[in-house]
Amino acid sequence: MTEEHEHKNGLLKPTRPVGIIGYGAYVPRYRLPAAEVARVWTGSEGGTPVKEKSVPRLDEDVITMSIE
Predict the structure, then answer these.
(1) Among the listed residues 29, 21, 26, 30, the one whose alpha carbon sits nearest the alpha carbon of residue 62
(2) What is the distance between the alpha carbons of residues 15 and 55, in angstroms, rounded to a whole number?
(3) Do the Cβ atoms of 35 and 52 come closer than 8 Å?
(4) What CA–CA distance (Å, rounded) separates 10 from 4?
(5) Residues near 54 by beta carbon (within 8 Å), at least 6 away in sequence
(6) Distance CA 32, CA 40 (A)
(7) What is the dihedral of CA 36, 40, 41, 46, to 10 degrees?
(8) Do residues 50 and 36 touch, judged by C-beta distance below 8 A?
(9) Average pLDDT of the chain?
(10) Exposed, middle or buried: residue 22 (CB in 10 Å: 0-12, 13-18, 19+)?
(11) pTM for this one?
């Protein structure tokens, strides 16, 4: 059962204050050179504005990264 009450305009209004109290970030440890990505996609190794890209391990997915 929710603790929300209908507001006069039909929207639900919470009975307690709500909001974001914090946030975090996680960047995978492993790196892939941008030249390798360019080589695979375009056949050349130049023209990328970045030097490397972070990539997750084989056992990491978005759920795993969200709790680390």
Answers:
(1) 26
(2) 42
(3) no
(4) 12
(5) 27, 28, 29, 30, 31, 32
(6) 12
(7) 40
(8) no
(9) 83
(10) exposed
(11) 0.52
Do 45 and 35 contact (CB within 8 A), yes or no? yes
Measured distance CA(20)–CA(36) in Å, rounded: 39
| 26, pLDDT greater than 50 | yes
The residues spanned by each domain of the chain are: 29-68
Residue 28 token pair? 């995978």
Instruction: Report the distance separating Cα 50 and Cα 13, nearest Å.
Output: 46
Tokens at 56, concatenated: 């997750």
